[in-house]
């Protein structure tokens, strides 16, 4: 498993995204750090609401704005993943495309 780190254009270290790439099966994992800057009581309140099925209209997302010079690296990773997943032994149906 290869791990690649991409910093955010805004420079915030909490927006760093890790992309892991499995060279055997071509799977790509994207992991972004989620902020937990709320005070303890607010986090407990959020957890209780979640336990009772409350759905936030905003979800629990954060974002990374890829730096211009990281885009070719990202494209290269995805192209490698596509080549691996398009190989007949990694394609369950054997179909291309
Ligand atoms: Zn950012």
- Number of separate helices: 2
Mean of all residue-level pLDDT scores: 85
Overall radius of gyration = 18 Å
Quaternary organization: single chain
Strand content: 15-25%
C-alpha termini separation: 25 Å
Strand order of the largest sheet: 1-2-3
Count of structural domains: 1
**What sequence of helices (H) and strands (E) makes up the elements?**
EEEHH
Structure summary, number of beta strands: 3
Low-pLDDT segments, ≥5 res: none
Are any ligands bound, and if so which? zinc ion
Characterization of this structure:
- Strands 1-2-3 form a three-stranded antiparallel beta sheet, with helices on one face.
- It has 97 residues and is an alpha+beta fold.
- Helix content is 28%, strand content 15%.
- The protein has one domain.
- 4% of the residues are buried.
- Residues 8, 10, 12, 15, 65 line the site of zinc ion.
- Zinc ion binds at residues 8, 10, 12, 15, 65.
Ordered list of secondary-structure elements with their pairings:
Elements: E1 2-6, E2 17-21, E3 28-32, H1 40-51, H2 71-85
Antiparallel strand pairs: 1-2, 2-3
This protein binds zinc ion.
Task: Describe the structure in brief.
The mean pLDDT is 85. The chain is an alpha+beta fold and 97 residues long.
Question: What descriptors fit this protein?
Answer:
about 100 residues; alpha+beta; 2 helices; binds zinc ion
